[in-house]
């Protein structure tokens, strides 16, 4: 089996280079790259005018299986990922049952092999049941294939437990991913606290609810030496805290979600529950700070926090709607339109934050186009303009605040292990 | 001239001309209420449905009387508060209303945005009778009607709003309404009950109740809910009363002839003393009468004028 990707602009984050060349894939692996590679016996993908990049990695998705199959399954979620250009996703453990033991982790991996079209890396829970009381069997889960640990959505409120989790994770050499939210400050809130929440009469979630926990986890990371990754940074204060921590050498990394560099709390006007997300859409100032953090390297990773919900769940009073945005299929368009076209990030920086950096944070393969590597490759058409229409999503989650938005930049082909799993928005497997 | 929208969700998106029109129309309506036979045939054959997810006999009765005086049929849709938490109820309510063919729906709901959600899914007029901490536009309209009747104008008046601004839909609608009409609005209350960024709406947030009342033409006092104390938002009613309660001494700081208002029901001895509530400057009872007149005006303007709505 030979596949030749011809004439594309290749972005290689490992080499830090962009150049026009061909890439040859043989038997699922990258066999080499260069100019005018021989096409004999190879199927050819003409990538002229397109960007050829390592397979995108989304280190923060909710696949909802097991337990919430009405929202999403591994089958639909991985197809959404393929359409979004992602060849690997890391899925959060807030399923039912919670992925807090080796059996659930193994079953997710098994289901992904049976029904998925991209690579799925489970993230295990930090605490048993994600209820923040006692440590989950992190060692067993690591053994079964969990790549990182998080109580995403059910943040560990006890500093004592979080410190022990970090000590334990450090022994195992795994990363903890922290959803930073002090429930004492955020509880009952449904949007960012500010002028818009005041006008709408909705209970606000102050920026400090996030920043207090970012501070705590930085302090604990420094104390324990554990690698800590801050999920979905949304405030200017969090960006500043991470920047300061990194400058003193604390082993932390951070991610941002596309909606947080695209929308502000203004989007909540009209009470459309597709704008309800946790952490909430913040102020202008926060949005600018997040972009600065992306540009100066404070924020390492772009991750979608893909959180699909059913239409019925979202089509209710704002306070009753669940938090979350279905993000896999708009990520590349938003990154290209909001960050690359505007000059916030270079194409190389953007791709690095969606490939090499998340691979490093999780310690998984990917982010490279070197000969011998698994042929996980995404081809992006950076010039294609398209309009977001959730009815066309492969995800069951149609909950996007971007309906009708015009974006420029769309994944054209997704290749996992040398196999084309998506082409022209179609996943035919 | 009429109202521009099919609904009245809030005063944020309404013009000074529209407010003036409603208040001007409420005048003749008040005359009808004063008659011995309080019934005119204006809205005969029209149906007003009241849907209250929160108990409020006062507001509901006011709307029902307003509809009845104009000869509209009224139906109260039983909406159990408990079913709100299930989430499907508002959508189901909308479907039921559409099937029943009402002309106006009056909605009271504990969650902000409910009225807008309902209005979007219905072709008939929706009047917001209070949604969460968002807006309560008819209360603000009756407040402004009362003030204008007494003072002859709204423009240039100093209006103090005292109490729990954070949870008050009345405060928000009053702020929009009064500022649109050119009044100067000052707020005072425990700092834990002043919502973020409210000064950006063009109001002055005062540090003390005295500062807010000083020279005010209107002192509008909000109801403080006991549950806010349980939530730890302020330490206690005794201290609240001492710091923010309206006493005759405090009221004496206001402009001569200042009006004392309250959306009701009053916690006597907490938000204001009985002396103030029942005093000469209190217009609290007239607010209730004017409420019916303003709601009649609104019903008339929304569905009375023409058939082609
Ligand atoms: Zn999260």
Structure description:
The complex is a heterodimer of chains A (429) and B (309). With 429 residues, chain A is of the alpha/beta class. Chain A has two domains: 2-52 and 373-427, Urease, subunit C, domain 1; 56-362, Alpha-Beta Barrel (TIM Barrel). Helices cover 31% and strands 23% of the residues of chain A. The longest helix of chain A is centred in the middle third of the chain and has 18 residues, at 207-224. Chain B is of the alpha/beta class and 309 residues long. Chain B contains 13 helices and nine strands. Chain B has helices at residues 16-34, 57-69, 81-84, 89-100, 114-120, 137-151, 169-180, 209-213, 226-230, 237-244, 248-251, 274-277, 284-304, and strands at 47-52, 73-78, 104-109, 125-131, 158-162, 184-188, 204-205, 218-221, 259-261. In chain B, helix 1 (16-34) packs across helix 6, helix 2 packs across helix 13 (284-304) and helix 6 (137-151) crosses helix 13 (284-304). Chain B is globular, with a radius of gyration of 19 Å. At the A-B interface, helix 6 of A face helix 5 of B. The structure holds zinc ion. Zinc ion (ZN) binds at residues 152-153, 179, 231-232 of chain A.
Beta-strand share of residues of chain B? 5-15%
* Number of helices in the DSSP assignment of chain A: 14
Distance between the termini of chain A: 17 Å
Could you give the count of β-strands of chain A?
Answer: 18
The largest pleated sheet of chain B is described as:
5 strands, parallel
> What's the CATH architecture name of the largest domain in chain A?
Alpha-Beta Barrel
Q: What is the CATH class of the largest domain in chain A?
A: Alpha Beta
β-strand percent of chain A reads 15-25%
Bound molecules: zinc ion
Question: So what's the overall shape of chain B?
Answer: globular
Summarize the structure.
The complex is a heterodimer of chains A (429) and B (309). Chain A has 429 residues and is α/β, with parallel strands linked by helices. In chain A, 31% of the residues lie in helices and 23% in strands.
């Amino acid at each position: 089996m030979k596949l030749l990707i011809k004439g594309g602009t290749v972005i290689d984050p490992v080499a830090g280079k962009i150049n026009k060349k061909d890439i040859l894939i043989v038997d699922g692996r990258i066999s080499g790259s260069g100019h005018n590679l021989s096409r004999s016996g190879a199927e050819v993908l003409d990538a002229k005018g397109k960007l050829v990049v390592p397979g995108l990695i989304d280190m923060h998705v909710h696949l909802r299986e097991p337990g919430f199959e009405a929202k999403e399954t591994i089958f639909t979620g991985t197809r959404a990922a393929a359409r979004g250009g992602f060849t690997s996703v890391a899925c959060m453990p807030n399923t039912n049952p919670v992925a807090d033991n080796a059996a659930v982790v193994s079953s997710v991996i098994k289901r992904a092999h049976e029904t998925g079209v991209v690579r799925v890396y489970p993230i295990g829970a930090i605490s048993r049941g994600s209820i923040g009381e006692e440590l989950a069997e992190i060692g067993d889960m690591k053994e079964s294939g969990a790549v990182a640990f998080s109580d995403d959505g059910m943040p560990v409120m006890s500093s004592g437990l979080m410190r022990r989790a970090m000590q334990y994770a450090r022994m195992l050499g795994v990363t903890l991913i922290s959803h930073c939210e002090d429930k004492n400050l955020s509880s009952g809130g449904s949007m960012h606290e500010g002028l818009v929440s005041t006008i709408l009469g909705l209970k606000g979630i102050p920026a400090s609810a996030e920043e207090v926990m970012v501070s705590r986890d930085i302090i604990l990371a420094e104390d324990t030496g554990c690698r800590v990754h801050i999920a979905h940074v949304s405030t200017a204060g969090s960006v500043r805290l991470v920047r300061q921590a990194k400058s003193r050498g604390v082993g932390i990394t951070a991610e941002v979600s596309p909606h947080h560099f695209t929308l502000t709390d203004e989007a909540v006007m009209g009470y459309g529950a597709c704008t309800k997300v946790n952490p909430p859409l913040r102020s202008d100032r926060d949005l600018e700070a997040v972009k600065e953090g992306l540009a100066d390297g404070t924020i390492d990773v772009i991750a979608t926090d893909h959180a699909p919900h059913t239409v019925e769940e979202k089509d209710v009073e704002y306070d009753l709607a669940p938090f979350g945005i279905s993000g896999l299929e708009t990520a590349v368009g938003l990154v290209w339109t909001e960050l690359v076209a505007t000059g916030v990030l270079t194409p190389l920086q953007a791709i690095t934050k969606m490939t090499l950096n998340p691979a490093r944070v999780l310690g998984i393969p990917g982010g490279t186009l070197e000969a011998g590597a698994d042929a996980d490759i995404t081809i992006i058409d950076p010039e294609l303009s398209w309009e977001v229409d959730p009815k066309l999503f492969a995800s069951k989650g149609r909950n996007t605040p971007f309906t009708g938005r015009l974006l420029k930049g769309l994944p054209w082909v997704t290749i996992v292990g040398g196999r084309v799993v998506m082409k022209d928005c179609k996943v035919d497997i | 001239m009429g109202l521009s929208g099919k609904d009245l969700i809030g005063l944020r998106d309404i013009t000074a001309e529209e407010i003036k029109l409603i208040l001007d129309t409420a005048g003749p309506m008040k005359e009808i209420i004063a008659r011995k036979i309080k019934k005119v045939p204006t809205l005969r054959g029209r149906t007003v449905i009241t849907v209250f997810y929160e108990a409020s006999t006062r507001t509901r009765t006011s709307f029902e009387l307003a509809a009845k005086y104009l000869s509209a049929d009224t139906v109260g849709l039983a909406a159990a508060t408990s079913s709100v938490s299930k989430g499907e109820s508002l959508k189901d309510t909308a479907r039921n209303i559409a099937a029943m063919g009402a002309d106006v729906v009056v909605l009271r709901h504990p969650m902000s945005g409910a009225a807008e959600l309902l209005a979007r899914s219905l072709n008939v007029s929706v009047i917001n009778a209070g949604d969460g901490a968002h807006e309560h536009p008819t209360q603000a309209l009756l407040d402004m009607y009362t003030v204008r009747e007494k003072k002859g104008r709204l423009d240039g008046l100093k209006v103090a709003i005292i109490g729990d601004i954070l949870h008050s839909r009345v405060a928000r609608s009053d702020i929009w309404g009064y500022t649109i009409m050119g009044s100067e609005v000052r707020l005072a209350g425990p700092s834990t009950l002043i919502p973020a960024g409210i000064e950006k709406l063009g109001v002055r947030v005062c540090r003390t109740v005295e500062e807010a009342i000083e020279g005010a033409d209107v002192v509008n006092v909000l109801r403080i809910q006991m549950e806010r104390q349980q939530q730890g938002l302020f330490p206690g009613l005794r201290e609240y009363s001492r710091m923010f309660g309206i006493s005759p001494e405090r009221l004496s700081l206001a402009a001569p002839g200042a009006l004392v208002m309250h959306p009701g029901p009053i916690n006597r001895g907490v938000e204001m003393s009985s002396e103030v509530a029942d005093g000469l400057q209190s217009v609290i009872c007239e607010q209730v009468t004017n409420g019916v007149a303003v709601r009649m005006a609104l019903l008339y303007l929304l569905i009375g004028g023409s058939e082609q709505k």
